[in-house]
Amino acid sequence: MTLRYMPDAGRLYGPEYARDPQAVYAELRARHGAVAPVEIAPGVEAHLVIGYRAALDVLTNAGGFWSKNSGAWQARLPETPETGGVIAMLGYRPNALFSDGAEHARYRKVIADCFQQIQPHKLRQLVTEVSDSLIGRFATKGEADLVADFARLIPARVFNLLFGRPDSDSEGLVQALSDMMEADGETGARGSEAFSRYIGELIQAKHAQRGDDLTSWFMDHPAMLRTDELAETLVLVTAATYDPMANLISNTISRMVSDDRYYSSLTNGALSTYDALMEALRAEPAMANYGPYFTLQPVHFHGTWIQPAELVLVSYAAANTEPTGIPEELRSDGGAYLGFGAGSHRCPASDPAVLIAMTAIERLTSHLCDLELTVPRDELSWRPGPFHRALAHLPVRFTPIRPDQPGESPWAMRPPSSSIPSAPTSPARSADYATSAPWSS
Ligand code: HEM
User: What are the strands, taking DSSP E only, across 90-216?
Assistant: First the structure.
């Protein structure tokens, strides 16, 4: 879909963009100002919002003409092999991310209420156990790819348990999600099928027997989601968790092990893991440009005319790194700026997300305190794609930990499957990481 006045759109796909997205944003900024024409796949154009003030205007719905519903835009987009991946990410679905007003508030309340049930100290314990069991798999080897061996596995395993499934199911979920991310159509389709099956079986199991877990809380929430809405909510939570969490964890580690200010914090605490997370959220936000919005009427916005059914993408990455300096009063989230979005669609799980990332990274760096990259950071490879800032690999080396070493080595910890009661739907589990639901009292 070619937008009528965008002859010199910047490219947000391909290896050049993946290598240095900030160079592309800088050029767009110089040529167009706060809103720039871009192509996110061959023939699929969008307005990229790269100014911080403009980004906030969209996210907080200044003027009241912004919508998240992608239906009208999608209807104009031809279905071709090039547009398939874009539609998978942006096509309308009845969930919080693509809805407005009362519908959005209903979906969002289910997610926000249920996430509030998770007690932080129990979540920390769960992430500690999952992290330690993963670290135990490679600690003796002296080298690892922290994307494949650690960052991607953390969210899948943690959320599989939070959904109320035994840890043994997590391998299947990990495989399905990683297949879904493959560009190769056949592998992607296989992953997609396996993921649908996982969600279907999860719902079936919880219909048969509730537990104290996210899925059961979603089901019993007073909003009374229909089964299709429940499935969409579980899909959204998994999708919103898997890639952003993995990217946040790996982007942060890559900064910590290649920057002296953080490197020394691994041993003597110069700057904390929290500082590194905030810096990664600001300068390299995991959901780099994944802020889709649409206008309800023609609007002249920060110097650009935008028509209904045209795609507008908020670039958290470009806005956060605007070189002119962002006024103090417009900042959100302390150091993270727009890394978790802003306004009514702001990430409802930013606190658990930070807690999960921080716990996982601290376990890793406390066990393997001399981690170092095997290649310079500027030679790391990044996954192409317009929406995320995602390392393809994070190769590191470290002094192997011998199993006979004294102290609390990772493999001496109980694996998560044994610390979570084996019958995940049993009432005994309620004391594990949950408080009782406020709507049930
Ligand atoms: C615990 C893991 C996470 C869960 C369950 C989660 C869940 C969600 C959900 C359900 C939404 C849609 C909210 C709505 O439309 O009202 C959302 C939005 C968002 N999330 Fe998260 N998220 C997680 C982690 C992350 C991470 C790690 C990042 C970034 C590093 C992130 C960044 C965002 C952003 C930028 C938005 C706003 C999107 C927009 O404006 O359209 N999230 N998240």
Answer: 143-145
For residue range 267-306, list pLDDT tens digits in order.
565 788 999 999 999 999 999 999 999 999 999 999 999 9
Tokens of 308: 């209904």
Centre of ligand 1 from the C-alpha of residue 416, in Å: 25
Q: Provide, rounded to the nearest whole percent, the portion of the chain with pLDDT above 70.
A: 86
Inter-CA distances, 223 with 36, 175, 206, Å = 40, 32, 17
- Is the separation of the CB atoms in 368 and 401 below 8 Å? yes
Distance in angstroms (rounded) separating the CA atoms of residues 260 and 116: 36
3 falls within a domain: no
* Residue 185 φ/ψ region, left for φ over 0, alpha for ψ in the -120 to 50 degree band, beta for the rest: alpha
Residue 425 belongs to some domain of the structure:
yes
Q: Is residue 1 part of a domain?
A: no
Interval 388-396 mean pLDDT: 96
Q: How many domains does the chain have?
A: 1
Answer whether 360 contacts ligand 1 (Cβ < 6 A). no
Taking CA atoms only, the protein residue closest to ligand 1 atom 19 is 347
- Would you put residue 307 in left (φ > 0), alpha (ψ -120 to 50) or beta? beta
Tokens describing residue 346: 């702001």
- Residue with CA closest to ligand 1 atom 3: 241
Please report, for the domain that includes residue 119, its CATH number. 1.10.630.10
Do the domain assignments include residue 34?
yes
Domain limits for position 213:
10-440
Is the CB–ligand 1 distance for residue 159 below 6 Å?
A: no
> Who's near 249: CB < 8 A, 6+ residues apart?
150, 151, 154, 357, 360, 361
